[in-house]
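> example.struct
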């Protein structure tokens, strides 16, 4: 039985012109032989991902969503640049092949990369795939080791010294996500003004060891080995990567860590199967990261709480598009429930924190 992601027919309103893509890729990528077919991967809420098949070659095309309020969050050029710099140093990156800003092909910039085959976990495990408790822990620890490896890369050595501005990163992130949430808030979304003021007041200084941050590192953005699903063979979705504070990046990952014993209110926002038996607690995750990275997380309440808020703001930005009729994707309708659940979880940390 195969557990790899299956591409299906393109969603209504998100179709691509296969003839234009075929002419472009065959002109830019040597060795492509045969007719091209285009299908779409059904998962994901942000950039759109398509499978291009040419003969026995499989490629992946990434483009921004149709009808988006936040164009700067879907910079295909940045995503292509970080992959180009990383893929020879960080073995989990897919190989980028070509990028273009030519609007005549599909009306937006896009890039094409080699497909990384393997298992991608979603909210719940697919039927037939089972992790014993010790395997769930091993996968969790491997997941954290890959994040530590990313954060330890000398970004200047691989040509990314101008990819981001580490000075003032925490302040920009806090102020930026507060502003984005306020701008995207719909009448049915929670206000959160007291929480946002707390972030502005309690934000810690920037780390003295900046690094490459993925900004959306979670279990459904990694590719697992088909023969050994506890082993990570790829990391996907680099659209928000930059140079910044790794501790904020860790907090962003920690907010996805929802376990079996968490309150049912929080499970509304669960996106990945961290509820498997054997998955370490959030406290164990923090200790593991500290030990393996050599970084101390003194303000863990802040990083975790801000990760929850930021994820809620991302949900809200996407829901905003659905609420205002900018997209017809029915998957986005339920995201307001996730916004409310994450506000509940954020407030729970905020009210108990001793910071």
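> example.seq
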């Amino acid at each position: 039985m195969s557990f790899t992601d299956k591409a299906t027919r393109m969603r209504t309103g998100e179709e691509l012109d296969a003839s234009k893509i075929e002419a472009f890729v065959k002109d830019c990528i040597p060795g492509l032989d045969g007719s091209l077919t285009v299908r779409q991967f059904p998962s994901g809420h942000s950039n759109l991902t398509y499978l291009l098949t040419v003969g026995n070659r499989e490629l992946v095309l990434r483009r921004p969503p149709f009808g988006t309020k936040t164009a700067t969050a879907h910079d295909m050029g940045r995503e292509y640049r970080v992959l180009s710099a990383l893929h020879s140093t960080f073995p989990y990156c897919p190989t980028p092949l070509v990028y273009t800003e030519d609007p005549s092909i599909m009306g937006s910039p896009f890039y094409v990369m080699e497909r990384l085959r393997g298992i991608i976990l979603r909210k719940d495990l697919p039927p037939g795939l089972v992790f014993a408790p010790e395997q769930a822990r091993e996968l969790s620890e491997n997941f954290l080791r890959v994040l530590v490896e990313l954060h330890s890369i000398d970004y200047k050595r691989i040509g990314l010294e101008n990819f981001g501005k580490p000075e003032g990163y925490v302040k920009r992130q806090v102020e930026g996500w507060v502003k984005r949430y306020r701008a995207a808030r719909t009448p049915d979304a929670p206000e959160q003004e007291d929480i946002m003021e707390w972030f502005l007041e309690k934000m810690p200084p920037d780390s003295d060891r900046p690094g490459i941050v993925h900004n959306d590192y979670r279990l459904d953005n990694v590719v697992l080995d088909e023969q050994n699903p506890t082993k990570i063979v790829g990391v996907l979705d680099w659209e928000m990567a930059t140079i910044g504070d790794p501790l904020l990046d860790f907090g962003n990952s920690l907010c996805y860590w929802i376990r079996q014993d968490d309150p049912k209110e929080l499970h509304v926002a669960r996106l990945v199967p961290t509820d498997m038996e054997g998955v370490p607690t959030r406290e164990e995750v923090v200790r593991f990261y500290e030990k393996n990275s050599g970084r101390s997380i003194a303000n863990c309440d802040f990083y975790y709480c801000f990760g929850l808020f930021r994820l809620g703001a991302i949900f809200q930005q996407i829901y905003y598009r659905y609420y205002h009729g900018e997209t017809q994707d029915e998957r986005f309708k339920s995201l307001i429930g996730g916004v409310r659940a994450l506000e509940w979880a954020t407030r729970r940390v905020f009210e108990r924190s001793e910071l």
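> remarks
The radius of gyration is 20 Å.
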